[in-house]
Amino acid sequence: MVRTTLVSLLVLSGMSATGVAGDKEETSKDVQAVQEEGASGLPDAPQWKPGQVKRRKDRTVTLEPIEADEVGRDVQWPVPESSVSKAGETDTSGSSSSSNLAASTARGFESQIDPNRRLNPRLLNLAPNRWIKLHEPSSLDWRRQAHAGIAYDMHRGTLLVFGSDTHRRNWDNSVHEFDPVNERWETHYPPAPKESYRADAQGNAVSGEDRLLPWAMHTFDSLVYDPRMDALVVTAVPRHIRIHVEGVTTYPNWIYDLSKREWRIFWNNGNKPVNVFAGASAYDSFRDVVVAYSGARKGGVWELWPDRKEWRKVGRSRHEIHFNMAFDSTNRKLVVFGDFKGSRDVWVFTPGQYAGQMGKWEKRSPIGNDCPSWQHYPVAYDAKNKIFFFVPKGVTCTYDVATNELTRLSDLQINVGKMNYMMVYDIYHEVFLLVTGDHRRPPVVWALKLDPSVLP
């Protein structure tokens, strides 16, 4: 029964990338800095213009980014290959184009689902609407970081954690993976010593002695699994690492190849990277697009097309920092929860018809006021029940995009910590998996099978 639904859930699965020893560091100063920097990632970064030449000691490159005020103004975006008809003619006529794209996406990623994957009987037989402690190790040599993010590997059915609290207290730039079948954590490689933090020949911030690694950083919700590349995509920026390294001019975007367990820098077709601080990311499974969202005045919504060559800006920012975003694959919308200093509003972003088209924002005031106003809390989308599931201040709530209704599940409270971005929906077992813990205790993995039909 479970396995027969996996392929049907493929397009319906909105994969979100979705901690604190005191999150006092993220303050109004950070919001101001993000407003000043936009998506540059470095303080006082120049506002590059099309055709402007950026000179470095070792190279000269011509940068031609799309200006923010040009996006959506009579720009003729290339139509992705996945929306080309079988006859080889581009179909731009609304529903037929969408149906072709959906079919292409389903065919393209059906191979990512493993129909023979061994499953965990404990998860298959969970009593509904109860948080169950799935795994609590007696000892572990790392701790869940409040500022770290999580991604769900839909191919392997595992949880991938990356990110650090930094602030000179933690230098964890390892990838930690949890297998819900074996109920076991695995660390892919040891963290790089801080002495290895340096600038490469192009001025990129890199680390590692025997392998190339990114710096330890706050990832928040800016970590997402991309099934096309079978890789993690990281757009976060290491703002709070509190280390000075000569020669660093760029905080690059990073790609982590899961088949090789190797990091590489994403060059963005020669354009500057889209760096995001305290922002969010998600995978649009309908259009096969990776989406990054940076808050504050100079932020915006960026899409990585199916060709995976470069980011394109498709929307402006409507938030500051500390929000979480997930893809509603039923209604084909990106939904954002929370904001700096707390918010009950839900923002819905409707993407363009194809990758690269300008999208539209809608601010919603949901029906129901029992769910608390908050920020930086875990969110995930249940494609089977067509509903969002989130935990602000330890209170378990649901949100239905179709009805604009919030529902508080009063009997399902759980301590997730002050900051936590670590919850995913496991499409194999059809359960939510939540990671809690702090710098004092090893991470704990919780599971919940949602059944709206038997809720009180």
Provide an overview of this structure.
This protein is mainly beta and 456 residues long. It has one domain: Kelch-type beta propeller (Neuraminidase). Helices cover 8% and strands 28% of the residues. It has four helices and 29 strands. It has a five-stranded antiparallel beta sheet, with no helix packed on it. Strands 4-29-28-27 form a four-stranded antiparallel beta sheet. The protein has a four-stranded antiparallel beta sheet with strand order 5-6-7-8, with no helix packed on it. Strand 25 and strand 26 (405-409) form a beta hairpin. Helix 1 packs across helix 3. The radius of gyration is 21 Å and the shape is globular.
**CATH superfamily placement:** Kelch-type beta propeller
Strand content: 25-35%
Strand line-up of the largest beta sheet: 1-15-16-17-18
Assign the structural class, choosing from mainly alpha, mainly beta, alpha/beta, alpha+beta, or little secondary structure: mainly beta
SSE topology:
Blueprint: H1 6-12, E1 15-16, H2 28-37, E2 53-55, E3 60-62, H3 95-109, H4 121-124, E4 132-135, E5 149-153, E6 158-162, E7 176-179, E8 184-187, E9 198-199, E10 205-206, E11 223-226, E12 231-234, E13 253-257, E14 262-266, E15 280-284, E16 289-294, E17 300-304, E18 311-316, E19 324-328, E20 333-337, E21 346-350, E22 360-364, E23 379-382, E24 387-390, E25 396-400, E26 405-409, E27 423-426, E28 431-436, E29 444-448
Antiparallel strand pairs: 1-15, 2-3, 4-29, 5-6, 6-7, 7-8, 9-10, 11-12, 12-13, 13-14, 15-16, 16-17, 17-18, 19-20, 20-21, 21-22, 23-24, 24-25, 25-26, 27-28, 28-29
Helix pairs in contact: 1-3
